[in-house]
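Morning!

As promised:
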Amino acid sequence: MSRASTTSDVFNALAEPRRREIVSLLARGSPLAVGELVEALDLAQPAVSKHLAVLRTVGVVSVQQVGKSRLYALNPEELKPVHDWIKQFEQLWSGQLDRIKERAERKAQERAQKN
Amino acid sequence: MSRASTTSDVFNALAEPRRREIVSLLARGSPLAVGELVEALDLAQPAVSKHLAVLRTVGVVSVQQVGKSRLYALNPEELKPVHDWIKQFEQLWSGQLDRIKERAERKAQERAQKN
DNA sequence: TTGACATATTCCGATACAGGAATATGATGT
DNA sequence: ACATCATATTCCTGTATCGGAATATGTCAA
């Protein structure tokens, strides 16, 4: 088996730094034309179009034709799965961290004894 | 340029579903031996070891030798960057979503007029 | 030290990417 | 219909995976 496709998943789509930049730019609220993203990213137009195609495939952005331009907008709901997944672990680094680590280390010690 | 290395980034490391599973399993708190992960994931041992190597390189897990086994534990703090990044967009799908979308669509309309 | 167990590493093949260059498609105004 | 602007698609090359198979490394116990 080979590496998972970038379009297989929101996680895979967002693994690419450029695509995260695009998401950040679109998160301001106003849809942006491809040309505007090209400027902002300092990247060739075909490359930007390809990144947008990936994001569109996974549903993170949507397009709207306006004159000659195509305005890309963020679909924030599509980011929620990532948020939900990572949020599971939020408590692990906030406050209770120490107690949890202690418990883990104690368990490891117990196992060390048994062997 | 080719695709970013899986070890270049926590985002890239977590793009792989199996590695996310590993993180979920370790998040319970108790460190797990490679063999235990092999069972849980129903994946061959070398494959699991390779995934663990990736996670270790980016710092998401750490190892502790206990007898013949190597117990892997989660380093939750290393997940925080992902959390922080995605949290930026949290408000976009909670409640104020409608107002934001409206604003975006209005802006798009304004631009449509201008062209 | 030898053997058994647990894990890591190397080599392999198939797959898929990211960006560059060139080209194709699409929309608009004349 | 045509020229032009904006964007998408195709082809290419270099690179990096993922998992399987085989093998190497490391740890312990007798």
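Chain A touches chain B through 47 residues (CB under 8 Å).

Hope this helps with the figure draft.
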